[in-house]
Amino acid sequence: MSGGHAWRGNWKARLHERARELGFDSLTAFANARPAVPLLALADELGEDDVAGVQVVSELLAEAEQSHQVTRFLRDVLARELSESIPDGWPAVLDDANRFKVAMALGSWAAFTPETHEERVRRARTALLTTPPPPGWRPLGPDDELLRTLLPDEEV
Fold first, then answer.
1. Span 61-65, mean pLDDT?
2. What angle is formed at CA 80 by the lines to CA 122 and CA 97, rounded to 5 degrees?
3. What residue spans of the chain are helical by DSSP H?
């Protein structure tokens, strides 16, 4: 995690330069090569001392908006947030501890949602909680069948 140097200088250029140094044309290509890896881990890989997870997600969203792939970005971020919060998959029982973990993942996910997609994310979140996935379900990336059902590739 960033030691406070993440916001110094041109951090956007630094992120893209790091992705290129690792052999990727874009930050999205870098992230796509690491499906379901938590955002903080992506940030650490790009620069432990000078890259923050929020910077990575911000630039991934910017690239998604440019390529009209915001829905896919949202599925990707949800897979990453779930991977971080419930690494063993969807809990069999939503007791208080597990409910908190799921709420943290869904809350973080919602925080990264652009206004244009807030209603779709709210409906997807409600559907996940109303009809939970099978115990142990873990989306391995944005193309997970359940995620595609919750948020199909229909740009708004």
1. 97
2. 75
3. 11-21, 27-32, 39-47, 53-66, 70-85, 96-111, 118-130, 145-150
pLDDT at 1: 41
**Lookup: tokens for 14:** 């630094």
The alpha carbon of residue 106 and the mean position of all alpha carbons in its chain are separated, in whole angstroms, by: 10
**Placement of tokens 């997807």 in the chain:** 124
User: Which tokens in the block code for residue 146?
Assistant: 């359940």
Kindly state the average pLDDT of the residues 111-138: 96
Question: CB within 8 A of 25, min separation 6: which ones?
Answer: 19
Q: What own/partner pairs with CB < 8 Å and gap ≥ 24 does 52-55 have? A: 52/1, 52/2, 52/6, 52/7, 53/1, 55/6, 55/11, 55/12, 55/15
pTM for this structure? 0.92
pLDDT at 52 over 60: yes
DSSP 28-40: HHHHHTSTT--HH
- Six-digit token string for 70: 């915001």
**By the 8 A CB rule, do 38 and 84 touch?**
yes
In Å, what is the CA distance from 1 to each residue of 22, 46, 53, 59, 106? 19, 10, 8, 17, 21
Q: Where are the domains of the chain?
A: 11-66, 70-150
